[in-house]
Amino acid sequence: LCAPSQEGSKTAAMPAFTFSHQLTQLQFFCYAENATAVDQWGKITAIRVLGQRTACSYTLSTGAFAFSGSTASLSVPGITAATPPVGEVLAATQYGQALMIEPKTADTQLFLEIDTEKQGTQAAMIASRSYPAGQSVKIYIRMAEHMISIDPDGCEIVPWVDLVTVTSGYPFVLENGNTIVARDVYGYADPASYPTHEPWSVSPTHTELVWDANESC
User: Fold this and answer.
1) How far is CA 58 from the centre of its chain?
2) To 10 degrees, the CA torsion angle through 161, 194, 78, 22?
3) CA dist list (Å): 154 to 18, 32, 56, 91
4) What are phi and psi of 142, to 5 degrees?
């Protein structure tokens, strides 16, 4: 998430910060076309995206964001070895967490490595397409008999999240309507002083020993 730099003073309020995602998010979903394919491949244990640049820079004064350097394989985080469900693309389940990559403004082929329990590492290719910044691309991997492919009908691109705007006055409420951002006299919110909590459906009950106490924080 990046935002252009802003300036302000006691007499001229600083404009709002508007943060936007500078990366592309990939989500991977897998399914098998029949029980024979499941028996052939077994569990999916890992997915990697090949040839991705991992070094990037952000120039605060200009707002320029750019990737550079050599490429590497990026592993999809959080994958637990699991057998893909049998059925059509609608039966597919997500494997691992979202993976962030460098955006691609021109049509680009992505190459994958998929580790399987019974047949080792398999290669797959995603047809050429663009990968805009701030977008989330769902990629569906089809496990067929004797073949692993990317389902072209299942791939779709959707907005990642809405832009987040942060104002300069404290405290304030984010655009989601349920998050309050606080700042103490030192200019930041110490997590020990402002602990996080699960979402409340009702205000929690608490009491203080005396009127000016703040034991509940």
Assistant:
1) 19
2) 30
3) 32, 13, 31, 11
4) -105, 125
Amino acid (1-letter code) at residue 170: Y
Count the alpha carbons within 13 Å of 94 in the hemisphere toward its beta carbon.
11
Question: What distance in Å separates the CA atoms of residue 164 and residue 180, rounded to the nearest whole number?
Answer: 13
Which letter does DSSP use for residue 34 in this model?
S
Contact, 24 vs 103, CB < 8 A? yes
Q: Are 192 and 171 in contact (CB under 8 A)?
A: no
Q: How far apart are CA 88 and CA 42, in angstroms?
A: 18
pTM here?
A: 0.69
Q: Cβ atoms within 10 A of the Cβ of 100, count? A: 16
pLDDT tens-digit readout, 53-76: 999 999 888 888 899 999 999 999
Coil, helix or strand for 89? helix
Which amino acid belongs to residue 39? D
User: Six-digit token pair at 63?
Assistant: 């707002």
DSSP H or E run through 40: helix 35-41
